[in-house]
Amino acid sequence: MTPPLPSRRGLIFGGAAVSAGALLTSCTSNESNEKGPAQAGGGAADDKPGKAVTVGFAGPQADHGWLNAINEQARARAKEYEDVTLEITEGSNDTAQQIGQIETLINKKVDVLVILPADGKALTQIGLKAMRAGIPVVNLDRVFDSQQAYRCWIGGDNYGMGLNAGRFIGERLKDKKNAKVVELAGIDNLELTRQRTEGFDDALKNYPNIKKVARQAAEFTVESGQAKMAQLLQAQSSFDALWNHDDDQGVGAERAIKQAGRDEFFMVGGAGSKHAMDAIKADNSVLKATVLYPPTMAASAIDLARALGQGKGVGGLAEHEIPASLTLYSAVVTKDNVDEYLPTGFS
């Protein structure tokens, strides 16, 4: 059986913009660090040079704004360390090709591997192979099917995304009689989509006046967002709120909404793109909030990989070792706090 995802059992870090580096800072140094150009959560964990570490980084193809931001965060964080050399693959959504890229990194005998698998279950064996070869693996976001395939998992909280979106919508509509909400989900065969829906539905259980009247699954693309949102609008003559799982597909949803001339509802997005945050700040559209799924986790993964390669622990914790899992918090960005989170927004 597949073990429960760390997002439901891991350590919860408060504040999406805070990287694991915030805890790692006190491993060997008490000095403060300046922010790097691409990092919103602070500078490198400890900029005092130590043992040289070669980190191999393998992720899926950067064909989505969030995935592109993941690559940028990893590269920018590695550049902040004099003692880190980053070996990064081109990335692929093809399982066999990504496995081949990771095998190349294993053969190069990198010190630590950071892997964001296109499919966690399908790439579990390559994670196991690296661990058996004595290369610690930092499993980023999409979890492997076995805890033996990684030394540390770090990622977002998909259930928490849906839960916090539902709570935000619930509080806004708690005094409205017979309120209606709709959901524009992501790819339905992904576990993360099911978790986001589950969290959303669980939150709405606390608001008996609110009913989810429709749900459509899109594909995390602008085109699919526009097409599926158009279908929702056609099927539902009126509703009060929309929970959209992904800000990239949300761009398409916004287009469909504008074309239909609808504005009787408010929209909550997901992930935390710069486009979404700019719209929230402008406050001139239906988009009023977005729930973060921070790509800063990639910078934190580099921090953790460096610490593993240098045999460090995590400062601020009693344990001598880096935890087995770290789950980032899904903060809700609104007009009231958008300035705080704007630096984390990705294109």
Explain this structure:
With 347 residues, this protein is α/β, with parallel strands linked by helices. It folds into two domains: 17-156 and 296-328, Rossmann fold, CATH 3.40.50.2300; 158-292, Response regulator (Rossmann fold, 3-Layer(aba) Sandwich). It contains eleven helices and 13 strands. The protein has a seven-stranded parallel sheet, with helices on both faces. A six-stranded mixed sheet has the order 8-7-9-10-11-13, with helices on both faces. The longest helix is centred in the middle third of the chain and has 16 residues, at 158-173. The two termini are 37 Å apart. Residues 1-42 have low confidence and may be disordered.
Structural class of the secondary elements?
alpha/beta
Whole-number tally of structural domains: 2
Q: And the CATH topology of the largest domain?
A: Rossmann fold
Question: Helix coverage percent of residues?
Answer: 25-40%
Corresponding CATH architecture of the largest domain:
3-Layer(aba) Sandwich
Mean pLDDT: 88
**Molecular shape:** elongated
* SSE ordering: EHEHEHEHEEHEHEHEHEHEHEEH
**Which homologous superfamily in CATH is the superfamily of the largest domain?**
Response regulator
Distance between the termini: 37 Å
Please, how many helices?
11
- Please report the first level of CATH classification, the CATH class of the largest domain: Alpha Beta
Low-confidence stretches: 1-42
Note the main sheet: 7 strands, parallel
Strand order of the largest sheet: 1-12-6-5-4-2-3
Number of E-type strands: 13
Strand residues, percent: 15-25%
Cα-based radius of gyration, to the nearest Å: 20 Å
